[in-house]
Design brief:
The protein is α/β, with parallel strands linked by helices. The protein is built from twelve helices and ten strands. Helix 9 packs parallel to helix 11, helix 9 packs antiparallel against helix 12 and helix 11 runs antiparallel to helix 12. The structure holds ribulose-5-phosphate. The site of ribulose-5-phosphate has 13 residues, from strand 10 and helix 10.
């Protein structure tokens, strides 16, 4: 593996633990000012010290994150659709030169297996991997799930495997029953999105179950930045991902940190 690609991957999946806590704040590229993400400039600084990487668009990076930031950037490069239309017709909205210029450690691109835009999203992923390999830039494939799709092991296993076959270095998907089957069928590391906001204990349990099922970490957004105590939440997630804590221990940490923050 090219040194640059390997180095970038090590800045995402930490060598000390083989795991990662990625903070996802790219939601606005298709759904606008998402609750909790209205002002990235103020909500990000308290969270960044606990994130191994931050996943966002070039627009938010340039306008809301200081160039002095030490948090590695995973750049969302697919786009071109919104919640008002069919999401699956995304294209590549940010070029590789921009990703390199912004010192990204990976580029993120969604695929829509089974949806109207399946073919274009998969071909775009392949082209992005071609470009990424040319420049030592890992590609994170995001298995977006179309409205009509069921988030089960069969569907997510299919989508993750296709992404890996097309050359993605890391795949982001969702936790599901029989998640270990999704991991077993995917030859590259998997991270999970948190999905819609859950009660904090539920989101912590999902994190714990995903790690136990073989995920190398999370690329979580709403369950962190929409939490009643976002810093407490990302620290609880880290306790599971990097410190081998149980869901109970991580939730106890969340409660302790939340109460201290509100004291
Ligand atoms: C949005 C995304 C998000 O990065 C992904 O869904 C992770 O965020 P969350 O934990 O809020 O689901 O890809 O298109």
């Amino acid at each position: 593996m090219d040194w640059g690609l390997a180095n970038r991957l090590n800045l995402i999946i930490r060598p000390e633990t083989g795991r990662t806590v990625m903070l996802a704040v790219d939601h606005g590229y298709f759904q606008g000012p998402t609750t909790g993400l209205e002002q990235p400039r103020t909500m990000l600084p308290p969270l960044l010290p606990y994130a191994d990487t931050i996943m966002l668009t070039r627009g938010v990076l340039r306008s809301c994150v200081e160039p002095s930031s030490a948090t590695p950037v995973v750049l969302r490069v697919s786009g071109g659709t919104s919640i008002l239309r069919e999401l699956s017709h995304e294209g590549v909205a940010t070029c590789m030169e921009e990703a390199l210029r912004l010192n990204a450690v990976a580029v993120a691109h969604s695929i829509f297996v089974g949806a109207e835009g399946e073919r274009e999203s998969l071909l775009n992923l392949g082209k992005l991997v071609d470009e990424g390999m040319r420049w030592g830039m890992p590609v994170l494939a995001v298995t977006a799930v179309g409205r009509e799709m069921v988030r089960d092991a069969r569907y997510l296993g299919l989508a993750c495997r296709i992404a890996a076959e097309l050359g993605a270095s890391v795949v982001k998907t969702y936790y599901c029953d029989e998640f270990e089957k999704v991991v077993a069928g995917c030859p590259v590391p998997i991270v999970i999105a948190g999905g819609k906001k859950l009660a904090e204990y539920e989101a912590i349990k999902v994190t714990y179950n995903a790690i136990r099922g073989g995920a190398v970490g999370v690329d979580m957004g709403r369950n962190i930045f929409q939490s009643e105590a976002p810093v407490a939440m990302i620290r609880a997630v880290r306790a599971i991902v990097h410190e081998k804590k149980s869901a109970g221990q991580a939730f106890a940490l969340f409660e302790k940190l939340k109460n201290a923050a509100h004291a």
